[in-house]
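Reading group handout, session on sequence-to-structure problems. Before we discuss, look at one worked example. The prompt was deliberately terse, the way you'd type it at a terminal:

> structure Amidophosphoribosyltransferase

The input record follows.
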Amino acid sequence: MINRYLTDLAALFFPKTCAGCDTPLVYGEKLICTSCWYHLPVIPAHDQTANLHTIQTASFFYLMDSSRIQRIIYQLKYNNRPEIGTLLGEKYGSLLRERTPFQEADVIVPVPLHPTKLRKRGYNQSAFFAEGLSHSMQKPTAMQCLVRHRATESQTKKSRYERYENMETAFRLAKAEAIAGKHVLLVDDVLTTGATLEACSTVLLTAGAIQVNAVTIAKAL
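And the output record:
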């Protein structure tokens, strides 16, 4: 009771706000308010998976301009709130642990950031998403397995082919033993054309992974 009183008192003077709508959170809410959870554009189970050549992918939400999930991902990536990624991973993992082929994964591998961007941001948002998935799905992670050894240009104004070409040689494997002979669940924040996931999966499969599937927080429309 005392802890509840102190929490409420602190919230009165230093209110924590929702990452999706910036309204003050009430007791029992964590990072994202109940209203935002209700209105987030969850991708229906029948539409969650898609094939990207060699890998099957699934995304938690549809990503639309000026939407709550766009604001949440912005907070995760650019406003020093990596814990949002962990929360989203825990929520999504509770669904994926009942779904084939994702429940069959042996290890979870996040898409890495280039060292320059990692130093600037201070953390890899996909790694925190992977941690949340790991907790819910009870699967180990291999955080340093993939390395992004070449900085890539912005993908925003590139064609689909140019995006694939831009990402083709951006990644290499640092720890082959972490994925050799295993089913890998590759993790990223947003799925656009799939160029990043394709490039990473090619490296993983070439190094000995027996299967690679992928999940992301959101899928761009």
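Points for discussion. First: The radius of gyration is 18 Å. Second: The helical segments are 2-13, 34-39, 68-78, 83-96, 115-121, 125-137, 160-167, 195-206.
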